Structure formats: structure tokens, C-alpha cells
Amino acid sequence: MDWVTYGRGFDAVFKQITDVNKQHKKNNSFFHYTSLENCINILKKINDENSICELWASNLAFLNDSMEYNDGYSILKDSLKKREDDFRKSADEKELIQFYERIINNDSKDLVFKKNIYAICFCRDEDLLSQWKYYSNGGGIAIEFDLNKCAFLGNSVVNKDKTMECTNMSIDVVYEDKIKSSILDRRINDLLNVFSKNKDHKREYLKLEEDILLTFIGYFKDGNFKEEKESRMLFLPLFKTMEDKRDVKDLIKYRVRNGKIIPFLKIIVKNQDEQYLPIKSLRIGPCKNQQLIFQALSHFISKDLELENIQIEKDGSCVVNGIKIIKSKIPFRE
Known about the structure:
Helix content is 38%, strand content 25%. By secondary structure, the chain is of the alpha+beta class.
């Protein structure tokens, strides 16, 4: 199985989920909620000629949902069980039976750790109280990206022997169980049809399909999190030979947040037209120092410090070097 075929397999799945996800086609704005410190780290190259910034993709096994991946994996098992007879009907197709039993008998919490999938998370809402509560910590920022103008270059130390597989787009998380089941049922039906016609490379094909399905459910989340209106980009560090695993491990970094150690990948983001950062706005969360943060951000992203030329609009926002700076409208009491 060559890497081009591998990539095309993922592309087919991502197209399938975006076909279901109507909102993705209507709204090109994605908001990345983060702390003040992380915001500065993301914007620290803002005055570089290369116009790039850096986002961190966190390991799915360490996100805020303690049942992360379990929800999607449970529905995947149900979809497979509905077709159990089709998987077992031919005694000669041992690979197909092994594929079925490998997924059915696995534990999702253990698997999400082993699959090593990383996510950059966005929100579709620009001013959401639940997001401010989680990320604010005395002051937070919602960074608005227009992902249609973004080029995701992968890790800064990636070369031809160490690469990143990613969607190259953000996919809105699926919360409704009926839609999850429909997507997986369709994919499993396609798998069985292709496998029955595929005389060669059956083992490689099933390995690809297993990787696709187990990555696919990384876009599924329990319906109780629907308020988050989350959208995700998923990244997988890949290797071409067994010997490369140690090199790929070097791409993974670690940080401490809220008493947890979180593995993450540094992802470089560049504006496709190379004019400026692919950032549309910075929204400051509700906090007692909101005005001071507003002034500091204006100072930080101004190239020439000609601050007297900054115009404050009626809604209290301003535009500095093409980036709108605005305050959350959610009331805050000191």
C-alpha cells in the first residue's frame, strides 16, 4: 500500500463526513479559544516576513471529555455487528474475520491511546460562555481563522522521511447518534463491496480501512457536548519503516495543563497568499482586565507602533494590520 493510496483513502472519508455536515460549507469562520499565554505564543511570529503562526494539536486521549473516542467506537461496533454474517460468511476470508474481531474485541480507551491521533479544536461560535469558562483562566482569546486561506505545513521539523497525515480542513464534530450510525453503516457497506471484488492486496486494504474507521470516529462526540459547536482538524504522525518510529516520537512534545501531562504536535500555519497571517479577528473574553488586554494586543500586533492611527469603531473594536480586535459582549462582574 503506497502513501498516495493511503492519503486518497482518508480523503474519501473526509469528503463523506463533510457531505453530511452542511454547516461546514456555509461558514468559513473557525474560532480557536485559548489562554492569553497561548495566544501570544501563537502570534509570536506575527512580524516575521514569513507570516506564519504555530498551533498545537493535542492527543485525543487527553482531551476534556473523559469518554473521548468511546462514543464513536461503541457505534462503530454496533454497525459492524449488524453486518456480522457478511463478515463471517466465507471461511476462506480469514483476513476479513480477523478485521471484524480485532475491532469488536478491542477496548476504546486503550485504542485511542494506541492510535496516537492529534486534534486542533475550533468552535463555530465566536462568543460562547462555556468556552470562556474553560479557557479563560483570568482572560482568554478566541482567535478567528479563515481556514480557506490556511496552508497547514505540519510539524516544523518534518522532512521527507517523517511526515504528517491530516485532513487539511476542519470538520465539524458529529453529535447526533443517527447521523453517526448512518455514516459508519455506509462506510462498512462500501468496505464489504470493495473487498469482495478485490483479489489482490486484501490485507493492505483492510489495514487502510481500519485506520480510516478508527480515525473517522475521532470526529464523533457525545451529544452532551453539543453546546461546544466544535470543529476539528486531525493529524497523524506517520512513518515509512519500523525504524522510523523513534524519529516520529521526536515530533511529539509534552505540556502541563490543569494537572495533566498532554502530548501534542506543533503545527505550522501559513497564509496561502503569503500576505499576512490567516487570522481575521481576536476576541477578548469577559474578564476584569479586558480593556488592558485590548490595548496590549493592539500594541503587540502593530508593526510600527503608530498607535495614534488606530480607529476605534462604534462597537468598540479596532483593526490593526488587518486583524480585528474586539471584546466579548458577555457581561462580567468584578
